[in-house]
From TrEMBL:
Domain GTP cyclohydrolase II: 198-335
Its EC number(s): 3.5.4.25
GO biological process: riboflavin biosynthetic process
Organism annotation: Linnemannia schmuckeri
Enzyme class of the recorded protein, top EC level: hydrolase
Gene name per UniProt: RIB1_1
Pathway: Cofactor biosynthesis; riboflavin biosynthesis
Molecular function terms from GO: GTP binding; GTP cyclohydrolase II activity
Protein's name according to its UniProt entry: GTP cyclohydrolase II
Length: 391
């Protein structure tokens, strides 16, 4: 199998799907090495090779260093505000239990906060640190049934205000709702500030595998309204489905450009304008076709107690990596059909309208998107049916 990547022949030869690992080894431009090859006269000092301890050391078990017990219902007063909340129980009401102890976790939650949305629904944004990189990864958690184990764990010498500040409480803080709405929340009845889920939906979330989307950040598609990809459309659709279900998790990984970073991704765009497809552009930049990893995603799902999930994806590689060396099982793959292709299949292409940047309408169409999607199907195994008019 050969590829002509000379500047005189811009468009590469198209062949069948090449496995992810094989692409890297076959690529003549792929010479990455983690070996320490440069030479110098000075000697490494031992302390320079000692890793700096990271935050997991503060996530300690209360049974090891007991702190004052928290009351079941607390009211905390400060100079500027009064908050009302319920401290989480020792064992949060999860349908599933985490597979690893917090001490062994790859990622842990440092804070969460309620995020209201324009349609009246809400979710809790969780911030995760990890031992793999220096980035903060995110989790959008819909519904009250799914909770972080590491966030709820009592920390050494912390006060009730400390727990409130990092989001380790149940219910809602008083100042965000009126007295009537607070009473409704305390009575476990729906209110204007609930997640939008009914009691039946919340109960179902406790016993069934929730919707999960493992999404890698895409500045160009989510913020820049790029028509080169459907990343922004996929994120909006995942959020819409989870709001509708009343439960779900979007694990948002900071892996721009399939792991190569925004700057390298922009260089790849220039190569695509010369005629190379998205896979070959990455290879020509001395990168793999897909450099994303999912250990942090596994750790986040385990921290949230989710061992069985319904995964929103078209990518079989993502399913394989999420299940690898873990007890997480993808019990159902929920496909994400591109909206423009769905319109072609349904015969409604003439009525298809793109409302750029609108809430829940960040849909894209165009020849560049079609080319990008076809490459993902033909060369990266993505499970999407190409419309017959494009085959």
């Amino acid at each position: 199998m050969t590829y002509d990547i000379s500047m005189t022949q811009a468009v590469p030869v198209q062949d069948a799907y090449i496995p992810r690992n094989a692409i890297d080894h076959m690529n003549p431009f792929f010479h990455k090495s983690h070996a320490h090859t440069h030479s110098h006269s000075h000697t490494h000092k031992e302390f320079l090779q000692t890793p700096v301890p990271r935050r997991p050391s503060v996530q300690i078990d209360a049974s090891v260093r007991p702190s004052a017990p928290s009351p079941a219902n607390s009211t905390l007063s400060t100079a500027s505000t009064v908050v009302s909340y319920t401290t989480p129980p020792a064992t949060p009401p999860l349908a599933q239990t985490p597979t690893k102890s917090i001490a062994d976790a790859v990622a842990w939650c440092t804070a969460r906060a309620r995020i209201p949305t324009p349609d009246g629904s809400e979710y809790f944004l969780h911030i995760y640190e990890n031992i793999k990189d220096k980035k903060e990864h995110l989790a959008f958690v819909f519904g009250d049934a799914i909770r972080s184990q590491s966030l709820d764990r009592v920390q050494w010498n912390e006060t009730e205000l400390d727990r409130v500040k990092r989001g380790a409480y149940t219910g809602r803080l008083r100042n965000t709702v009126s007295e009537n709405e607070q009473a409704a929340l305390e009575a476990n009845t729906p209110s204007a500030y609930s997640t939008g889920a009914t009691d039946e939906q919340q109960q179902s979330a406790l016993t069934s595998a929730p919707l999960v989307r493992i999404h890698s950040e895409c500045f160009t598609g989510e913020i820049g309204h790029s028509a080169r990809c459907d990343c922004g459309e996929q994120l909006d659709e995942a959020i819409r489905l989870m709001k509708e279900a009343g439960s779900g998790v979007v694990v948002y990984l900071r892996q721009e450009g399939r792991g190569i970073g925004l700057g390298e991704k922009i260089k790849a765009y220039n190569l695509q304008d010369l005629g190379y497809d998205t896979v070959m552009a990455n290879l020509m930049l001395n990168h793999g076709a897909d450099e994303r990893t999912y250990e942090v995603a596994q750790a986040i799902l385990e921290d949230l107690g989710l061992n069985q999930i319904r995964l929103l994806t078209n990518n079989p590689d993502k399913i394989e990596q999420v299940e690898k060396d873990s007890q997480i099982k993808v019990v159902e793959r929920v496909p994400m059909m591109p909206k423009s292709w769905e319109a072609i299949v349904q015969g409604t292409e003439a009525d298809f309208v793109v409302r750029e940047g609108a809430v829940q309408d960040k849909i894209v169409k165009g020849k560049e998107l079609d080319k990008y999607l076809k490459v993902k199907v033909e060369r990266m195994r993505h499970m999407i049916s190409i419309p017959t008019t494009m085959a």
